[in-house]
């Protein structure tokens, strides 16, 4: 059972995530957008959206550090377990509260503002359910697991993180996850569910974060007989001349 | 010198009667899809007035266009790259749908479905945004023909600048129409604002387009454009804008708005310009110098050195010829009667305007004086400061000198031509008073008053060797393929893109440019439906059947199509 939940399911989800994105990028570039609803409503979005997005950037950063940096590395540079814990919990809490508050505002807005609600697709609703579940479970793990220590002190850096790295290295060790508290198990499973949904939702806009804007020239010139002409390559048998 | 070609337009505002034909045909051609209900690539505004979206010219509020930094460097007025990325989660300067208007339809079904009742049923307006009943309070042209009325005029951002002089007494009111499309700027701030790099300027003809597959819906272009001519399609989540009807331009046809203009007030042609000088010109310190600076960017297509440089830059010989015959070049540089719209935004716009003399003429006529007499008109231009200053706010960043000069040229043309039309001896002193020769004045009259289709639109077609590529490109336009929003499998956006036959355009062009209503050789083959008895199908009723596909078995047609 553990093998299924923490080896098979995550790999299936990861495969869906990667292949799904390739498929979507190949066949639905036109649908690849943020699907902004700012035109309909701005007052709530002004507060909710930056809160949520900046909070999420913090949350993702925290996960990258927490999951990918082995405890031995921080030990080696002389960061004690207690110091790390305090920094991680404080940072996580601030980012988490921002994300939760932002999400609450955005979901309230989506439900109550008529035009926004009528522009919401079924996929949006499913995605919101998964996203909210992941965030709430993550907050629960931080608050209940790390601050209130309900169910005993659990050092995820010796359990979940090691499992995650073994998972990425294709040497998965399911036993590490089966020993983790239920909150962590659920958080991980729902998160993988979200990853599997990811390519089919508006979340794809994460991968078009426009960092290239910082370095490209302001005005873009493109030639008509560019390699990629418009949206389609020439059909077979229609080679371009010159 | 880096020579580039730019497709440009000039509109003669004296001829605009505000009929909105351009807006309607444009909308039918490009934005009659869901998500684009409020989008008018072409709109006609009554000036003085609020414009569309309301007060879009107030850049202190909307922060569109460019501004000069402390060290004289050109910056985006809404902030540079870092600020754009930091505010990407909620664009602080995006106009809400309320600044445009809430699009609606009517509940027509009620008119036929309603049960028998004492009162006639009415079709109530339904919002196309929420689907609910709504009260219509504003639209794209709510203040149409109300120019200078006290209800709206004080909110016109351009009038606010000269407000202390404007009292809006009845005898001082004036009004004219301003048709607007995308300016296809040489220094487009929308493209500079796009974080995804989806907005590009075409190297060949300078048309500014949005790549629908690279746009990610960050909306920075909407706030970056000071003319607010980029719109957000709320169904597809992508930005859309005027395309200068590029599929038509590529085969040598004018844009839909020009083609259908009742007053024939639009001119289309090429301008050659030096791309290396654009940034420097846009950074001119004095706002009043921007008009001249932009004129300096344009190159003389008759200059042998320019022709050589154009050849080196890969501009075909027939394009250089077209640039020499360009009515745009004549109006901007030879006769100097066309002015740019809001040069102070520093985007180097490429749709220029001949300011209207009619507000001045109207006033003179109302005093009972001769409105075509040079002396009266010249005096009136000097005396009627308010219309002139208002026009200057629109076209020369507030500098009245160029506007004055243009209006005097137009006034001189009226009086000079009247003598000729009346069979009197032409008075050579009239053109001389505005620094023109009699011949130039007559040429200007010809171009402004009686220029035919192929003189108003000098559009070199894109090259034939690219023809099949163009066919592909034509299918790229945002309408043919997209529009269903989420429903990509069904509805109007479904299926493979329909290839756009270049032949159709050439047939249309042949019809548009022929002298008779229909070519006589075609006419004999046509069927007069009024005489047809409904039996059988006489030859010519349907186009010839192609051998491989019969027309009545077209695939994929549902019973309701």
Automatic annotation (TrEMBL), chain A:
It comes from the Bacteria. The chain crosses the membrane at residues 6-23, 44-66, 86-108, 128-150, 182-200. GO terms for cellular component: nitrate reductase complex; plasma membrane. It is found in: Cell membrane. One of its GO terms (biological process) is nitrate assimilation. GO terms for molecular function: electron transfer activity; heme binding; metal ion binding; nitrate reductase activity. Does not seem to have nitrate reductase activity. In the N-terminal section; belongs to the nitrate reductase alpha subunit family. In the central section; belongs to the NarJ/NarW family. This is Nitrate reductase-like protein NarX. It comes from Nocardioides agariphilus. The lineage of its organism: Bacteria, Bacillati, Actinomycetota, Actinomycetes, Propionibacteriales.
TrEMBL record, chain B:
Residues 512-561 are annotated as: Disordered. The keyword Metal-binding applies. GO terms for molecular function: 4 iron, 4 sulfur cluster binding; electron transfer activity; metal ion binding; nitrate reductase activity. One of its GO terms (cellular component) is nitrate reductase complex. Keywords: 4Fe-4S, Electron transport, Iron, Iron-sulfur, Metal-binding, Oxidoreductase, Repeat, Transport. Residues 7-36, 173-204, 206-235 form the 4Fe-4S ferredoxin-type domain. SUPFAM superfamilies: 4Fe-4S ferredoxins (SSF54862). Its cofactor is [4Fe-4S] cluster; [3Fe-4S] cluster. Its EC number is 1.7.99.4. Residues 545-561 have a biased composition (Basic and acidic residues). It is found in: Cell envelope. The keyword Metal-binding applies. Transmembrane segments: none annotated. It is an enzyme of class 1 (oxidoreductase). Its main location: other. One of its GO terms (biological process) is nitrate metabolic process. This is Nitrate reductase subunit beta.
């Amino acid at each position: 059972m553990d093998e299924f939940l923490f080896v098979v399911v995550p790999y299936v989800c990861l495969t869906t995530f990667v292949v799904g994105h390739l498929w979507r990028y190949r066949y639905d570039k036109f649908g690849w957008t943020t699907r902004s609803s700012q035109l309909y409503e701005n007052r709530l979005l002004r507060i909710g959206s930056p809160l949520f997005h900046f909070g999420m950037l913090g949350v993702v950063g925290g996960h990258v550090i927490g999951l990918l940096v082995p405890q031995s590395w921080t030990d080696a540079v002389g960061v004690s377990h207690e110091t790390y814990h305090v920094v991680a919990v404080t940072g996580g809490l601030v980012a988490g509260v921002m994300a939760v508050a932002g999400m609450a505002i955005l979901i309230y807005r989506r439900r109550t503002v008529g035009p926004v609600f009528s522009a919401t697709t079924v996929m949006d609703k499913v995605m919101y359910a998964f996203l909210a579940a992941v965030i709430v479970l993550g907050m629960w793990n931080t608050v209940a697991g790390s601050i209130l220590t309900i169910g005993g002190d659990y050092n995820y850096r010796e359990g979940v993180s090691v499992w995650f790295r073994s998972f990425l290295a294709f040497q998965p060790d399911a036993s590490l996850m089966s020993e983790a508290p239920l909150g962590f198990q659920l958080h991980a499973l729902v998160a993988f569910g979200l990853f599997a949904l990811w390519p089919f939702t508006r979340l794809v806009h994460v991968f078009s974060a426009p960092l290239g804007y910082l370095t490209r020239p302001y005005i873009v010139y493109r030639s008509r007989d560019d390699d990629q002409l418009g949206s389609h390559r020439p059909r077979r048998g229609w080679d371009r001349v010159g | 010198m880096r020579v580039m070609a730019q497709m440009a337009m000039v509109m003669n505002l004296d001829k605009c009667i505000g009929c909105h034909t351009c807006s309607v045909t444009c909308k039918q051609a490009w934005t009659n899809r869901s998500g684009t209900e409020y989008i008018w690539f072409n709109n006609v505004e009554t000036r003085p007035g609020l414009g569309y979206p309301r007060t879009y010219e107030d850049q202190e509020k909307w922060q569109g266009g460019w501004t000069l930094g402390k060290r004289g460097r050109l910056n985006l007025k809404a902030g540079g790259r870092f600020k754009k990325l930091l505010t990407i989660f909620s664009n602080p300067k995006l106009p809400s749908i309320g600044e445009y208007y809430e699009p609606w339809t009517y509940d027509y079904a009620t008119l036929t479905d309603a049960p028998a009742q004492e009162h006639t049923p009415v079709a109530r307006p339904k919002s196309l945004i929420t689907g609910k009943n709504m009260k219509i309070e504003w639209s794209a042209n709510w203040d149409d023909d109300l120019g200078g009325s006290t209800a709206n005029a004080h909110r016109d951002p351009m009038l606010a600048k000269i407000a202390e002089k404007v009292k809006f007494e009845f005898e001082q009111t004036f009004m004219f129409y301003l048709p607007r499309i995308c300016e296809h700027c040489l220094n487009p701030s929308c493209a500079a604002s796009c974080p995804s790099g989806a907005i590009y300027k075409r190297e060949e003809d300078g048309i500014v387009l949005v790549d629908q597959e690279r746009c990610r819906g960050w909306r920075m272009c909407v706030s970056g454009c000071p003319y607010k001519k980029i719109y957000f399609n709320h169904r597809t989540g992508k930005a859309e804008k005027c395309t200068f009807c590029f599929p038509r331009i590529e085969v040598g046809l004018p844009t839909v708005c020009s083609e259908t203009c009742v007053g024939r007030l639009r001119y289309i042609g090429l301008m050659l310009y030096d791309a290396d000088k654009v940034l420097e010109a846009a950074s001119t310190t004095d706002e009043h110098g921007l008009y001249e600076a932009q004129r300096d960017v344009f190159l003389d297509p008759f200059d042998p050195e320019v022709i050589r440089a154009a050849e080196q830059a890969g501009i075909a010989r027939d394009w250089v010829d077209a640039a020499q015959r360009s009515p745009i070049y004549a109006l901007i540089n030879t006769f100097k009667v066309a002015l740019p719209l809001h040069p102070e935004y520093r985007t180097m716009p490429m749709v220029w305007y001949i300011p209207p003399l009619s507000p001045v003429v109207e006033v003179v006529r109302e005093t009972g004086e001769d409105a075509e007499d040079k002396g009266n008109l010249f005096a009136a231009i000097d005396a009627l400061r308010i219309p002139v200053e208002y026009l200057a706010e629109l076209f020369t960043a507030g500098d009245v000198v160029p506007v004055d000069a243009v209006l005097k040229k137009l006034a001189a043309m009226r009086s000079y031509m009247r003598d000729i039309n009346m069979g009197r001896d032409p008075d050579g002193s009239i053109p001389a008073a505005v620094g023109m020769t009699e011949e130039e004045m007559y040429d200007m009259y010809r171009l402004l008053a009686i220029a035919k289709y192929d003189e108003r639109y000098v559009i070199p077609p894109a090259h034939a060797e690219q023809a099949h590529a163009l066919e592909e490109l034509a299918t790229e336009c945002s309408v043919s393929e997209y529009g269903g929003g989420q429903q990509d499998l069904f509805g109007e956006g479904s299926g493979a893109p329909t290839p756009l036959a270049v032949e159709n355009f050439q047939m249309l062009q042949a019809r548009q440019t022929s002298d008779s209503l229909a070519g006589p050789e075609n006419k004999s083959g046509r069927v007069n439906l009024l005489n047809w008895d409904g039996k059988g199908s006489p030859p010519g009723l349907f186009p010839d059947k192609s051998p491989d596909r019969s027309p009545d078995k077209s695939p994929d047609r549902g019973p309701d199509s």
